[in-house]
From TrEMBL:
Swiss-Prot/TrEMBL keywords: Iron, Metal-binding, Oxidoreductase
Protein name, entry field: Fe2OG dioxygenase domain-containing protein
Annotated PROSITE patterns: FE2OG_OXY
Organism in which the protein naturally occurs: Penicillium angulare
Family statement: Belongs to the iron/ascorbate-dependent oxidoreductase family.
Residue ranges of domain Fe2OG dioxygenase in the record: 183-281
Recorded GO MF terms: metal ion binding; oxidoreductase activity
Length: 463
């Protein structure tokens, strides 16, 4: 038995190192797989003919979705296209007793709904930089927010708080704020009507209107329709909001991160009337910040990572891990790096918080070049004999190098770097912007990452 007691464990062999990295990868991929990217619920309408406490009782017994207070019927006011001196008014759901109290009670409610449909303009979408109108891709009507008013506001029903809890949680380490306290602000964006038998909106992402935009909220007003499922995808997972069954008498809503690809299946009958809102990250109003009690160490990932990182000999002399984000971010503005940690979504936020709480320094950086090569997922080959620290960057070997920028910034884009015709100055300044330390890549971009890049180049709800 060797007498000499070792002061520290030897570095891991390549084989052992790869094994640990694979474990790390599994934990992170598991976190990506379990993270939420949507939330939603329903709000019953108080039937003004029955006592409201009956309605409330009925709702509180209904399933786990949203069991918030019921809503009064929703009124929409707009100016008629042909007669802008005349304000039109419609109450949904149709046939609710309160609709007969309207000023133009002589017009049947169902005709006023048809009038609203007629007064909408056709809704376009964006294909790359271009505004496009293509009824095969999107068939819907729209009113801009300055063209209508509504009595509905999502904040009245706790929807904003629901969204904050699921999509924008505040994670604090032992009461020490990781980020400034985050709130969600909803900005009314459009009224849309998708009409049977052929209304639809094919796969797209919601084009970020600002660097703090994090998601979209769709509120489906009570109006009977068939079809029209809203399907939202992320990272191979799918959420299917089937609103047709309760469409006639319920408000139904869904919120999701705006980089998640989504579509509206064909509306085969009726009118699917929605209010859409852009969701932004906003700092707490002064004095309004409630310290979060969600500590990153509650996540299973925390324990798993801690075990891995404390393995004797693992990355003994330090190093850099590379992990691909699960979501896309608007990151080209000048203050993107200051904003980004607090705009992180889903599993990216959890990873950031967990790693930070384990004492790691975490940066969010842009990937400037990544080639999807057949060989990219191959683990570094190893003869199992090396004890060298320098072998660390070989867990994943990418055939083409993955280029990472040294920070997020407005003037940075990959084209700078690759354009052969670029002047020397541009190339030199790009050279300085590339992250220089060797990176041990733990994950590969998921299907989603690559698809997102493509989608952003193609279909958005705006150019
Ligand atoms: O109406 C919906 O369900 C979603 C609408 C939508 O995706 C959009 O307006 O961009
Ligand atoms: Fe959309």
């Amino acid at each position: 038995m060797p007498k000499k007691a070792k002061k520290s464990a030897p570095s891991l062999s390549k084989t052992a190192f790869n094994k640990v990295c694979r474990q790390l990868e599994e934990c992170i991929v598991g976190e990506h797989a379990s993270a939420a990217f949507v939330c939603g619920g329903t709000i019953a309408i108080i039937n003004t003919n029955t006592a409201s406490h009956e309605a409330s009782a009925k709702i509180s017994k209904s399933k786990s979705k949203s069991t918030l207070k019921p809503s009064k019927p929703v009124t929409i006011f707009w100016t008629a296209k042909n007669d802008d001196s005349k304000a039109s008014k419609l109450v949904l759901p149709l046939g609710n007793s309160s609709s007969s109290s309207s000023t133009d009670a002589t017009t049947p409610a169902v005709d006023r709904l048809s009038q609203l449909v007629d007064d909408c303009e056709p809704a376009g979408f964006g294909k790359g930089q271009e505004a496009v109108m293509n009824l095969e891709y999107r068939k819907a009507g729209k009113l801009d927010p300055e063209q209508f008013a509504t009595t509905f506001h999502p904040a009245d029903f706790g929807i904003i708080e629901n969204i904050e809890q699921v999509l924008v949680p505040n994670l604090n380490e032992a009461n020490e704020a990781l980020f400034t306290f985050r709130r969600v602000e909803a900005e009314l964006y459009k009224l849309n009507i998708y009409s049977g038998p052929s209304g639809l909106f094919k796969k797209h992402v919601d084009t970020p209107r600002s660097k703090t935009q994090i998601g979209s909220l769709v509120v489906c007003l009570p109006s009977s329709f068939e079809g029209g499922n809203l399907i939202i995808e992320h990272d191979g997972k799918e959420a299917d909001f089937d609103w047709q069954v309760q469409s006639a008498d319920t408000i139904q809503w869904a919120a999701f991160y705006s980089d998640c690809e989504h579509e509206i299946k064909t509306i085969t009958q009726g009118e699917r009337v929605t209010l859409t809102y852009n969701l932004y990250i906003a700092d707490a109003l002064s004095g309004a910040s409630i310290p979060s009690s969600i500590d990153p160490n509650v996540f299973p990932l925390h324990g798993e990572l801690k075990t891995i990182l404390s393995m004797p000999g693992f990355m003994k002399s330090g190093g850099v891990f590379g992990i691909f984000c699960s979501h896309a971010y608007p990151h080209t503005s000048k203050n993107a790096s200051a904003l980004l940690p607090s705009c992180l979504k889903g599993s990216d936020l959890v990873l950031y918080a967990v790693m930070h709480s384990l004492g790691m320094k975490v940066d969010v950086l842009p990937v400037l070049m990544y080639e999807n090569d057949d060989d990219y997922n191959r683990e570094g080959l190893s003869d199992g004999s090396s004890d060298e620290d320098t072998s660390y960057s070989t867990y994943k070997s990418f055939d083409k190098e993955v280029l990472v920028g040294d920070q997020l910034r407005g003037e940075f884009y990959a084209g700078d770097f690759y354009d052969d015709s670029s002047s020397k100055i541009i190339q030199e300044s790009c050279e300085r912007r590339v992250y220089k330390k060797p990176i041990t890549w733990i994950t590969t971009p998921t299907n989603g990452n690559e698809k997102i890049a493509m989608i952003y180049g193609s279909y958005g709800n705006e150019p």
